[in-house]
Write a structure and sequence with these properties.
The chain is of the alpha/beta class. The protein has eight helices and five strands. It is globular.
Length: about 170
């Protein structure tokens, strides 16, 4: 594996944190959850930042923390669902590592997210019946960033061994 940072991107609920831990273990490198770093930096949960300070403050903090990680690689970083879509975060991640989009449909994401809405600020007030439509609309607006990823994989039945192979093939071509 090349000595680079692997950034996992995708919509909330796509499995970035779970896949990130598994991929880091498979590659024998450290794992960083950007949301956990943001919470440590801010001294409060993501939900509290959204509620108390607003999304603009959260996005600024997210960008600042992302750019201050100082990871030398190799490493795996799971990002927040909106991380690549704000400021120059996608450009930063592309310049400093490999980006992988865990792609899922709105219906698949809604099925995963319906029982965790209270911990997800963007969907906490969305009714269960409106959740798929809300996600579909939000996903449509984010896809232009997500599709800029170096590698795009199906997040539904993600196979970490297959993903590792894709990373190794890409690294050999560099």
């Amino acid at each position: 594996m090349a000595a680079e940072i692997i950034y996992l991107i995708g919509f909330m609920g796509s499995g970035k944190s779970t896949a990130g831990r598994e991929l880091a273990a498979a590659l024998g490198c450290p794992f960083t959850d950007l949301d956990k770093k943001i919470e440590a930096y801010a001294g409060k949960s993501i939900a509290e930042i959204f509620t108390q300070d607003g999304e603009d403050v959260f996005r600024k903090t997210e960008s600042d923390v992302l750019k201050s990680l100082r990871i030398k690689g190799p490493a795996v970083v799971s990002t927040g669902g909106g991380t690549p879509c704000h400021g120059d975060n996608m450009e930063f991640m592309s310049a400093t590592g490999l980006t992988i989009y865990l792609k899922m449909t709105a219906r698949q994401l809604a099925a995963r997210l319906v029982n965790s809405k209270n911990t997800r600020p963007l969907i906490k007030d969305v009714s269960d019946s409106d959740l798929t439509g809300f996600i579909r609309k939000k996903l449509a607006g984010r896809e232009k960033w997500y599709k800029r990823a170096d590698i795009i994989v199906d997040g539904k039945d993600l196979n970490i061994c297959h993903l590792r192979t894709l990373i190794e093939i890409r690294s050999e071509k560099k």
